[in-house]
# Entry
Amino acid sequence: MKLNFFERIFILSPFRSLVQRHLEARQLFDLGGLTAGKTVLEVGCGPGGGIDLIYDFFGATAVDAFDMDPEMVARIRQRKSYRKPTTHLWTGNVRQIPVASNRYDAVFNFGVIHHVVDWRAAVAEVFRVLKPGGRFFCEEILKHYITHPVWGRLMKHPQNDRFDRAAFVSALKHSGFDVRRIREMANLYLWVIADKPGE
# Structure
């Protein structure tokens, strides 16, 4: 699902970069640690702030990333921080990631899966592309945010079958993940670290 007008303004704003760096990434780092020397995927990369964080904050060696909006992918390629030799970008969606199974050491999700109608399929696809022993760094917005009287009107999200903490954790486990750590804020935001069991 593509962003509406208000979400697009937010995603492209300096405020979004501050939130992603100083709240979302710090929570994920605190819960899940480094990805030093790893090959990483970011799902729904938007204008590229997450890619910079995955390199600079988490220490990844190479990052693949995609977004369903071609304009967002084009914006990343124009960034001064775009690392051409070690970054591979494409337009795509999280329900059908065009890579082989067991490809990535880690996958990052900065609040993308709640945009997906069939969000359980997205979780299962993340599990598929992770290597055995790989780690899913996940930040998400819960259904109470989506149905909030103010935010729910400004932001366009699928309304049916949205997840709370219990439903999201259940979907992770059903896909095969070992859920390692969870942090929730105000019944609105969720951070989860989940690992694909090793062979």
Notes: The chain has one domain: 5-195. The mean pLDDT is 91.
